[in-house]
Amino acid sequence: MDNNLEMLIEFLVELVSVAAVIVGIALGIQKHYIYFLVTVLGFVTIFIYQRIKRRIKDKKIKEILKEQWGKERNTKRDFSKIRELYDFLIRRENFHFTIDDITWSDLDMDLVFSKLDHTMSLPGMQYLYHMLRLPVYKEDFLKKRNKTINMLMENKALSNRLQFPLFILGKEKGEDIIKFFDKGINVDTRPLIIYRLLSFLPLVGIALLFYDIGIGFIAIMFIVSTNLFFNNKNKRAINLEIENFKYIGDLILCAESIVKSGIGEIELVHKEMEEVLKELKALKKNILKLRYNDSYRSEMEIIIDYLNMLVLREPKIFYKTVSLLNIHREDLLSLYIMIGQIDAYISVASYKSSLRYYIEPSLKENHGFYLYAEKIYHPLLEEPVPYTVELNNRGALITGSNAS
């Protein structure tokens, strides 16, 4: 269906449904309680329409995930955004060795990253970059990671299930989340008192409907306008914090969906992710009371969303939850990294599925600098010439079609 036509249909359905809700309430109060059935019909229409829309979207996403497996993603990438997690982690941790910017650039590693980047989410994309910049030399960890990647490559159905919540999380939102991990949230919580008072005004308007429907209707229109004004004013004042607040909710929902999708087979992060989610239960009770991923909400959340705007629920919960967000900042960072790990491992599995052939290196100790490989080629070349090489405690100058 054409996007413009789809948007028009959605607008008309919601307009008619909301009108039915309002008219049903007004006529039910003024004329006869039977008219409240019109209000119920309005809510039911919204519920059914959103459920149908969601099922169609689910099906489309699953088809996209299957179709994209093992295929390169030719999209524009903002590497200043992609490298934010890596830059943040090397500022706070003393890593033994990282690939410096000059070497990374000389080897065209941005292009190599783009070849490997089959990720679905921002944390996945950022963790994959971090993984490439930070070589690991511990054989036990490398074997476990390789085992996980091979399992994801062989079990495509599991990988697609795990990719579903990662796709919903996406890459577009959360662009300032690293700033939250770095500095936390620092806002004045005094406006909470004002928003609590304003949130009771809709009840006053409804009470006036029983006294005089004309006065009550005018009062409700005034109250709705006032609350929407303050709601939008608050959003502009703390827009960055609100967006981070919502994105954190998306992260928690994504992690819970991953756990339900069968993460038990991924030993590297399974237990740790479940433990972190337990630590975040207190935060979750507040933060998940509101909607987060606007493009993917349940039917009931769509209905409740209209009511939330009237009673200023979003700013009230935000100001109440600020301290909890700062307390659990490290837990949320751990969750972000684990989500990124899973997405990055699936990305590598998808990339390996696209290769004509590959070899898994055998690591040996006490051999100095020794490298032997048969028929290796540069991944960026479309028609490379495979080359067998052996280096025994010395370097080599590579020229021609295999030069990097």
Write a structural description:
There is one protein chain. The protein has 404 residues and is mainly alpha-helical. Helix 9 runs antiparallel to helix 14 (239-262) and helix 11 runs antiparallel to helix 18. The chain contains 19 helices and two strands. A two-stranded antiparallel ribbon has the order 1-2. Among the domains are: 1-68; 364-404, no CATH class. Helices cover 68% and strands 3% of the residues.
SSE blueprint and pairings:
Layout: H1 3-30, H2 36-68, H3 79-82, H4 84-92, H5 101-106, H6 109-116, H7 122-133, H8 139-154, H9 156-169, H10 177-183, H11 191-199, H12 201-211, H13 213-237, H14 239-262, H15 270-279, H16 281-287, H17 299-310, H18 313-327, H19 329-353, E1 370-376, E2 387-392
Antiparallel strand pairs: 1-2
Helix pairs in contact: 1-2, 2-9, 2-17, 7-19, 8-19, 9-14, 9-19, 11-18, 12-13, 14-15, 14-19, 15-19, 16-18
Brief overview:
By secondary structure, the chain is mainly α. Helices cover 68% and strands 3% of the residues. A two-stranded antiparallel ribbon has the order 1-2.
> Which oligomeric form is depicted?
single chain
Broad shape: elongated
Q: Give the helices and strands as they follow along the chain.
A: HHHHHHHHHHHHHHHHHHHEE
What low-confidence regions span 5 or more consecutive residues with pLDDT below 50?
none
Distance between the termini: 46 Å
Mean pLDDT rating: 82
The Rg value, from CA coordinates, equals 27 Å
